[in-house]
Specification:
The protein is α/β, with parallel strands linked by helices. It is built from 15 helices and 20 strands. Belongs to the aldehyde dehydrogenase family.
C-alpha cells in the first residue's frame, strides 16, 4: 500500500511519483500570464505503464469488501476537506475562478460528492434475486477518466469516487490547463489507504494521452467530460475496442420564465447560473426565455443584476467574475460577443473588448443580449463565457419549442407557478431541470440528452455507470 504521493506536479503511477519525459507543459495563471507550474507531457508509453499498474491492482481492489472501499472514499472526502483552502487557492491560480467561488464550489463540492458516494455503498443493491436468477453488480475493470479545466477537482472526484466505491481501478488524465489539484488528490488518496496502482494520474494533452487512454485495450471504460466535439472523438477512438463510454458534454440550456413567475427572483437566480464560474459551466443557463410582453421588464432586472458582477483579480474576495481560463478561451468568447452584435441582437449590457481597467489578462466583459433570434449563432452554439441571451416567446408551447431547439440537452430551469412549471419541466428534452431555483442535490442523476452526452453522474445512477451486470441462473 502506498503511503506517500507526489508533492510536486508529476505523473502518479503504481503508487509512485513519475517525472515523465523532459517535455513539460506550462500551467498559466490566466489573470497574469504567469507560469505557475509545469507538468510532464505524457506519452502513450506513460499511459501503458499506468494501465498495467491499474490492471495488476484490479483483482485485489475488486475483491475488497464494498464497505471498506466506501470507508476509504469517506477518508478521501475528509482529506479533501482538510485541504480545502489549498485546493481553492490552487484552482484560482491555475484557471481563474474567483476565490469566493473556489471556496464555495470548487473545493467544497468534491467533498460533498465523495462523501455521498461513500454513504451509498451500505444500502446499494450489489445483488438481487429475479426469479431463479441471481443478478450481481460487479466492477467493470480499469476506468480511464478524462476531465476538463472548468471544475478541475469536482469533475475528477465525480468519476474517481464512484469508480473506487464500485471496485474499479482508475487511470486519470486531468486537463493540462488546470492539472494541479490532481496531485493533491493523489496525496489524499494515498493517505486514505488507496492501494498502489488503484489510482493513477498521467498528465498530458488530449490528442496524445486522452486518445491513448480511449484506444487502450486494457481500459474497460472511458468516462469523459468536455466539449461535444472532443466527446465525439473519444467515442470514435474507444469504439475500436467496444469499451463502455460515458460522456458528459456541452450544453446550451434554457431558463424558461413563465408569465406567473416571481420575475425578480427568476432573473437574479437565472443570471447567477448563467454567469457562474465566468459562464464556464456546461450546466449554465445562457438562454433566458421570457414572455415577449415582459421582455423589457426582464431586461431592466437583468442589467441591474449584472452591474453587481465585479470583474477583476480572482484572488480578490470582491471579485465575482475572474478571467476566462486561458487567452484562447477569452478570444473565443469575445468572438461570439462580436458575432452577436454583427448578427443584430440588441446589446443591453457589456459588449466586445476588455473590461475597463483590465488591459492584461484573459478578461471579457460580461454581456447580455436581448431580442435574440432562437436560431442565431449566439443562441445555438456553446459560448462558455459570461454571455446571456434573452429570447422572447409567445405562449408555453413556443417556449418549449425554443428550449428544445438546440442539439444539446443537459440542464435547464423553469420559474412559475409550481404545477405549471413542473408540467413545462417534464416537456423539456434535457437531463436535469430546476424548478423555481431548487437546491443542487448531489444524489440526483446528472447527464445529458442528445449531443450533451450519455450516462449519468452522482448518486445511485452515477455508481451504476461503473459496474457490470452479471446474471447467474440457478
Amino acid at each position: 500500500m502506498s503511503t506517500k504521493a507526489p508533492s510536486a506536479p508529476t505523473h502518479w503511477i503504481g503508487g509512485e511519483a513519475v517525472a515523465g519525459t523532459a517535455d513539460l507543459i506550462d500551467v498559466v495563471n490566466p489573470a497574469t500570464g504567469e507560469v505557475v507550474a509545469q507538468v510532464p507531457s505524457g506519452t502513450a508509453a506513460d499511459v501503458d505503464r499506468a494501465v498495467t499498474a491499474a490492471t495488476a491492482a484490479f483483482p485485489g481492489w475488486a475483491a475488497t469488501d464494498p464497505a471498506e472501499r466506501a470507508a476509504i472514499v469517506g477518508r478521501i472526502a475528509e482529506g479533501l476537506e482538510r485541504r480545502a483552502e489549498e485546493i481553492a487557492t490552487t484552482i484560482t491560480r491555475e484557471m481563474g475562478a474567483p476565490i469566493s467561488l473556489s471556496r464555495f464550489a470548487q473545493a467544497a463540492f468534491p467533498v460533498k460528492v465523495a462523501a455521498s458516494f461513500a454513504a451509498l455503498a451500505a444500502d446499494f443493491a450489489w445483488t438481487e434475486e429475479i426469479g431463479n436468477s441471481l443478478v450481481v453488480r460487479e466492477p467493470i475493470g480499469v476506468v480511464g477518466a478524462i476531465t476538463p479545466w472548468n471544475f478541475p477537482l469536482q469533475q475528477v472526484v465525480s468519476k474517481v469516487a464512484p469508480a473506487l466505491v464500485a471496485g474499479d481501478t482508475v487511470v486519470l488524465k486531468p486537463s493540462e490547463m488546470a492539472p494541479l489539484t490532481a496531485g493533491i488528490l493523489a496525496e489524499v488518496a494515498a493517505e486514505a489507504g488507496v492501494p498502489a496502482g488503484v489510482f493513477n494520474v498521467v498528465h498530458g494533452t488530449g490528442p496524445v494521452v486522452g486518445e491513448a487512454i480511449a484506444a487502450h485495450r486494457g481500459v474497460d471504460m472511458v468516462s469523459f467530460t468536455g466539449s461535444t466535439r472532443a466527446g465525439r472523438r473519444v467515442a470514435a477512438v474507444a469504439a475500436g475496442t467496444v469499451k463502455r463510454v460515458a460522456l458528459e458534454l456541452g450544453g446550451k440550456s434554457a431558463n424558461v420564465i413563465l408569465d406567473d413567475a416571481d420575475l425578480a427572483h427568476a432573473v437574479r437566480h437565472g443570471l447567477g447560473i448563467a454567469f457562474a464560474n465566468g459562464g464556464q459551466v456546461c450546466g449554465a443557463w445562457p438562454r433566458m426565455l421570457v414572455p415577449a410582453s415582459l421582455q423589457d421588464e426582464v431586461v431592466e432586472l437583468a442589467v441591474a443584476a449584472a452591474a453587481e458582477y465585479t470583474v477583476g483579480d480572482p484572488a480578490d474576495e470582491a471579485t465575482r467574475i475572474g478571467p476566462m481560463a486561458s487567452q484562447a478561451q477569452r478570444d473565443r468568447v469575445n468572438g461570439y460577443i462580436e458575432r452577436g452584435v454583427a448578427d443584430g441582437a440588441r446589446l443591453v449590457f457589456g459588449g466586445p473588448g476588455r473590461p475597463e481597467g483590465l488591459p492584461e489578462g484573459a478578461y471579457v466583459r460580461p454581456t447580455i443580449f436581448a431580442d435574440v433570434a432562437p436560431d442565431s449563432v449566439i443562441a445555438q452554439e456553446e459560448i462558455f463565457g459570461p454571455v446571456l441571451t434573452i429570447i422572447p416567446y409567445i405562449g408555453d408551447d413556443h417556449a418549449v419549442e425554443i428550449a428544445n431547439g438546440t442539439m444539446y440537452g443537459l440542464t435547464g430551469g423553469v420559474f412559475g407557478g409550481e404545477d405549471r412549471a413542473l408540467a413545462i419541466a417534464r416537456r423539456l428534452r434535457t437531463g436535469q431541470v430546476d424548478v423555481n431555483g431548487a437546491e443542487w442535490n448531489p444524489l440526483a442523476p446528472f447527464g445529458g440528452y442528445r449531443q450533451s452526452g450519455n450516462g449519468r453522474e452522482f448518486g445511485r445512477h452515477g455508481l451504476e455507470e461503473f459496474l457490470e451486470t452479471k446474471s447467474i441462473q440457478r
